Amino acid sequence: MQGSAAIVLAMFGTTVDAGLRGLLAVRDAVARTWPRTPVRMAFTSDRIRASWRKRAVDPQWRLEHADISADILHVQGPLAVLASLQEQGHNRVVVQPVHMVPAEEFHDLAALVRGLAAIRGMQAHSRPFAALALGRPALGGCDPRHPASADIRRVAAALAADADQARREQAALVYMAHGSRHFPVGGLYLEFAACMRELYPEVRTLIGTIDAFPSLDPVVNELHDHRVERVLLKPLLIASGMHAARDLAGPGADSWQSRLTAAGFTTVIQPAGLGEQPAFCQVLVEHITEAAAAAGLELA
Question: pLDDT (tens digit, 0 to 9) for every residue of the chain, 300 residues total?
């Protein structure tokens, strides 16, 4: 069963224009690595896709946002993107999750990939895909062949610039992660923070999540315990979308900046998503490489 290869980047998505920078930077890094392999973006959030479709048919909005490309305005979900690629003759596909941890979005994506990969026809040529591989989230934690500790160290090494900035600011480095109420991924975040402290011992690195474990409260307590005065606050999110605009640095009393300021700390905000850092994008490129190799899939 012959066919050409393709790559699908499956990401939650964002409705915030500034948040697109991180997602598009990931896409561009992958496309530069495999210039002869089609690279398609897919947004897993139905709500976010619907928002872009609504904007796409609003002439005034289009006039005011002429820089938003058609592939964002008409972005599809993973199933539709895979069906379109298969129809075009791309039956060897790597699906790379653009996620930090294997939480709800990843497991839904994995179920979709497993289901499509399991389809068998009466004859080999009637199978929709000859090879359908699934990559790992940035911090791993979902594939026993690749220990999470190795993926975590890879990400921590890629974020050396964050530690450098905190050192220049003479500040602790506090990351805001998303977290999950449905899957116990807090341990991956805590191991990541511990790895950052090991690699960059002169910087106190801590992490909390928006709506799960670990929360911001123990971070504040530890900052007080170590008599920290300045905090560099950054999102551990690939895209600097609504969470960065509202939960990280929003004007409300519940934003992390407001809470840290109220607790007596001087805060320095760096709202850019991780996708805007080339070294982080390379982590996802390496995950694609490894997923393709495990499936015997050659990318051009």
Answer: 457 999 999 999 999 999 999 999 999 999 999 999 999 999 999 999 999 999 999 999 999 999 999 999 999 999 999 999 999 999 999 999 999 999 999 999 999 999 999 998 888 778 899 999 999 999 999 999 999 999 999 999 999 999 999 999 999 999 999 999 989 999 999 999 999 999 999 999 999 999 899 999 999 999 999 999 999 999 999 998 888 889 999 899 999 999 999 999 999 999 999 999 999 999 999 999 999 999 999 998
* DSSP letter (8 states) at residue 76: B
Local structure of residue 107 (DSSP, 8 states): H
> Whats the size of the chain, residue-wise?
300
Residue with tokens 């760096």: 270
Around 269, how many Cα atoms within 13 Å sit in the side-chain half-sphere? 16
For 287, residues 6+ apart whose C-beta sits below 8 A from its C-beta are 96, 135, 136, 138, 151
Q: CA 158, 32, 280: angle at the middle one, nearest 5?
A: 15
**Cis omega (within 30 of 0) on the bond before 214?**
yes
Q: Which long-range contacts (CB under 8 A, 24 or more apart) does 52-58 make?
A: 52/15
Residues 241, 17: contact at Cβ < 8 Å?
A: no
Question: What is the token pair recorded at 21?
Answer: 């920078």
